[in-house]
Amino acid sequence: MGKRPEYTAPLAAEGVQNALRILEGRWKLIILFQLFGGKVMRFSDLERAIPGISQKMLIQQLRQMEKDGVVARIVHHEVPPRVEYHLTDWGQSLCPALDALLLWAESAPAEIRQVLLGATG
Predict the structure, then answer these.
(1) How far is Cα 87 from Cα 41, in angstroms, rounded to an integer?
(2) In whole angstroms, what is the distance from residue 43 CA to residue 77 CA?
(3) From 21, 46, 64, 96, which residue has the greatest number of CB atoms within 10 Å?
(4) How many CB atoms neighbour CB 85 within 10 A?
(5) Using an 8 Å Cβ cutoff, are 98 and 32 in contact?
């Protein structure tokens, strides 16, 4: 991996923005949380686990996440074809970062925390 670059404020901000773009979209975080912990899920199981997502949107989000290196797809050549999804090691490594972000949101002042976390906070 090598030595970490020394970031200026603009370069650090750009790097974080680029990383956050990988997570943009209404469904990507929900998909991630479904797959955390080494879960391997079939397309139909993901579809059932995420109420309100259309097949088309699930396909689009999974393809984008696969392209970005976060999700891997396994195609089992059988009839009917079986397709399973799981997080790559890099995708799984997002779990501590997202957990830290959630802890950060939980530590917000009460009026802000209510907006960030909804009624559950």
Answers:
(1) 10
(2) 15
(3) 46
(4) 22
(5) yes
* Residue showing tokens 């899920």: 41
1-25 residue pLDDT tens: 678 888 899 999 999 999 999 999 9
pTM: 0.85
Would you put residue 84 in left (φ > 0), alpha (ψ -120 to 50) or beta?
A: beta
| CA–CA separation, 75 and 43 (whole Å) | 11
Q: What is the pLDDT of residues 28-66, one digit of tens each?
A: 999 999 999 999 999 999 999 999 999 999 999 999 999
Direct distance between the N- and C-terminal alpha carbons of the chain, in angstroms, rounded to an integer? 38
Max Cα distance, the chain (Å): 55
